[in-house]
User: What shape does this take?
Amino acid sequence: MKVSVLTKVAAESILKNKLRTLLTMLGIIIGVGAVILMVAIGQGAQGQIRTQIDNLGTNLLVIAPGSSNQGGVSRGAGSLNRLTVDDVEKLEREAMLLSGVSPIIATGSQVIGGQGNWHTRINGVSTDYALIRDWETTNGTFFDENDERAARRVAVLGQTVAEQLFPDSDPVGEQIQLRNVPFQIIGVLEPKGQSAEGDDQDDVILAPYTTVQTRLSGRSFIPQILASTFSPDEIPSAQAEIRLIMRESHELAEWEEDDFTVRNQADLADAAQDTTQVMTLLLSAIAGISLVVGGIGIMNIMLVSVTERTREIGVRLAIGARSSDVLTQFLVESVVMSAIGGLLGVALGFGGARLLGQFTGWSTTISPTTVIIALLFSGAIGIFFGFYPARQASSLDPIEALRYE
Amino acid sequence: MNSSHTVRAADVGDIIIRTSGLARIYATGRTQVRALDGVDVTIRKGEFVAIMGASGSGKSTLMNILGCLDKPTAGSYELDSIRVDQLDKNQLADIRNQRIGFVFQSFNLLSRTLAIDNVELPLLYDRSGRKIDSRKAAAEALVRVGLEDRMDHVPNELSGGEQQRVAIARALVGQPSIILADEPTGNLDSRTSVDVIRLFQDLNDQGITVLIVTHESDIALYCKRILRMRDGKVIADEPVLNRRIARDDLERLPDLDVQDITEVAL
Assistant: This one.
């Protein structure tokens, strides 16, 4: 039979049972739609993370405590924190390739002042922090080295905190209370927006790390040191330099492993990418399973259809159809069904992604590759799950089939 | 084997079917059922043959083998001088397609499929390369059975007699060597039966060879020759004396609704 005839026959028999066909296709539609949507969300998230990390600055380096390793058992990152102010000062003094070094001592506190109170993150940083993060003040000024050295109780507010506490007035010069310690506001930061992790970066108060250490946190170890290089090209050599200085500062013997880690933005990006990639894979695997379930639905209906149409098959064989004709007919039928399901599924995926983007603000990306793979996959499912019923049909004995009631 | 079972040549034409020692044995468990037990039949072009017999006599088995739906266990079968008992499945399918027209008791039309599409169906499987405009051929076949105004109807919209006419058109469309009809009037009332038989007689008058399996002796009387079967053997092979003509009988039938009878286009 010619392809055009085959398609016509398949289309006719599919249209004869509209509701059944639709319900059968629904499995494929939802499966393909889910795959497209999940991959769209995953790829969208990856793209978003990439741009956000790029926004952070490309020449950023993060020094974090290393893992302790006792008798071959690793305790995990941060299990041994030996980062101190001395390290920061040594880096500031000796590192040639760094444009800035700042510790980050993060703590959280209720802030009282202005028109109310607010819970926010308080970061103890050095004066270099503004340079490293490329973060200017809109009102007032950032604290200077004198403030830092004297551990003065001065604070710079993030945009969100400023809006919450002082919605109608200029906070510069006002007082706030952090854990009953009064701080004077000397500046307000320009808005930064969301971070790669989705946090509001403007929901923060910056203060000299010396002040935070003595007045608020009381711990001498530093959870994280931020540094920046003069240019992105110097990141590898800067990383090596930091390592040398840090080992010297920690007086590590040659056989001892680093008790700190130095990561750059690319590493961070990779880590974030890895996470979303695993997420994408996981989600699409689950969606893929629903696609396979849809395929089983097709197989089920095709088997029912073969049984129902036993006499028709008998007639076709009697008037001269070869087994291969019958096989092809049923195979085409299931492939047409799953292909149409696939196309509708793609439409559903597109629509779903758009709706999701509108309601949640997540960015979604649908690449042509995804669509093609989803369509090919649904076609393959049609062949795979249609083959067995089609072979059942083609192996019928014409006499038996004609006698079937 | 009895030589008296060979044909009595009423019409002298080319031999279309010739079987010799045809046997079909079904093995069911330990016992063997000899459904056909040495059948010698010769059918020539232009004949109109009825195969009669009680159920279990082997007439359906013979029909299936003559129709190339089944293969004999032993013996030879020549159709148009082709040894079909030696062909494989695909070749048999092509023989069925190009040389045999089937008519069934229960019509066996594809439901929800237009009459013309039903008739066209065999041509879609035609691998002979005969250059046929299948649509036109199907329309012509329907005209031939008098259904030119029913082409675009589905079987549900047709009466039993009309459905059987569509089936006959489907059997005709591939210009087969022979039409095999298995109880073609079994599902029809008596007047419609005679009407369908009249169509067969008209087609036979146009030179088409027809073989009918029936257990109704009054239907067999419309044929030219009767093969009687019992226990897998042909026990009688005789010409029909005083053959009945369906056209005449239809005129004599009581409460005849003339409008219900479609003229056969000649």
In short: Chain B touches chain A at residues 64, 67, 69-70, 89-90, 93-98, 102, 104, 108-110, 112-113, 121-122, 124-126, 170, 174 (CB under 8 Å).
